[in-house]
Amino acid sequence: MGEIIENDSGHKKGGGRRSPRKMGAHIDMTPMVDLMCLLITFFMLTTAFSKPKVMEITMPEPPDPNAPPPAVADFRTYSIILSDNDKIYWYWHKDVPEDAPKGALPTFDKWHKTNFSKDGLRKVLLSKNEKVFTEIYYLIEKVKKVELVMSDDSLNAKIKRIKKSDKKSPIILIKADEKTKYKSIVNVVDEMAICNIASYAIVDISLEEKALIQKAPK
Amino acid sequence: MAKIKLKRSSPHVDMTPMVDLFSLLLTFFMLTTSFRPQEAKVIDSPSSVSDKTAPDKNVITVLVSKDDKVFFNMDNGKDSTTHYRKDLIIEISKRYGFSINPQQIKAFEQGSSFGMPIKDIKGWLNEKDGKKKEKLQTGIPIDTVGTQMPELGDWVRFARIINQTAEVAIKGDADANFKTVKKVMDLMQVNNVNKFNLVTNLQKEEATLEDLKK
Question: Based on the structure, what is the number of domains in chain B?
């Protein structure tokens, strides 16, 4: 290791005087290569390439117990109720009978069961949010095809305006029971982003709702 | 007849190109590397479509592990003039009435995420052995006992007082119970944090018009 190997075919120069070290001295590079291998492996394993991303979420402030609950238009409000095993139920607040007392729920036959697949929750959300979604979709397509030149900031601002302008777009209330995994909540909030839902909130599940999903057929 | 002599090839392989390549790779990795931060527990975060990069400084992180244990992390700030972690441990020691020596403060300042009841924190700071240290990480209590604010609430409160511009991130494991995450969020809301950054992995997904028409 580490010896210098003299090159036998070295030139002879100057009438037989040998100067063996002058040319073609091979240095054994094996230890260096070993060390480099080790270092590369070390750096490869410790490097974190993908920077973590974050999803922003704003929770509603805890309501003042004395203040009246905010008036929300029934026809645009939907509740999504999450339970274990990725089961999702949803109902439309308009399905609550008109003469029912405040906070009443629609009967269970008005509840719909769905799942996290593309034909499940996403289809439901898209059909409820059709107008806003198509508008934003065409806008983004235009920007992609460079028919419309917009900076990212102004595009985002424009999308925000579109979302706000529609006074009929759905309001989604996300409710989760105790068995829900964190993953499901992230998935649902993610669906909201994919489907361009303008307003949604994670709210507490009511006791009645909990009782209803517990009774639900498996 | 003379035997045909096989040309004996020299056993020395020219390693120069290999060494060149290795040096290149090594330089690349050395320059691009950002070390994976040491975390109290391995957390497998869920994926989402969000492509906003997580802030790496000025952030208070609460980690929720698979087994619903809660850990806390806070950085020292953007530059070396601020020592938020040091300030935090001093405030906490005052609040909970225990004394803390400079070595323990230093150990805390250089550490990262941690999670144990406050009564165990000195033991954790004194412990040198990595395995024993890990054993002490039993999670920060988040349940209210009596009228007292759970310890996590105090951590968040003092962290917010010390670094008022810090953002709040929640890094939950995909399989953690939402109940725990919700408790953490509620404790944050008590401290007037209503905006959360949920740490996720990027997974591109888009809905198209076909999805709508189906």
Answer: 1
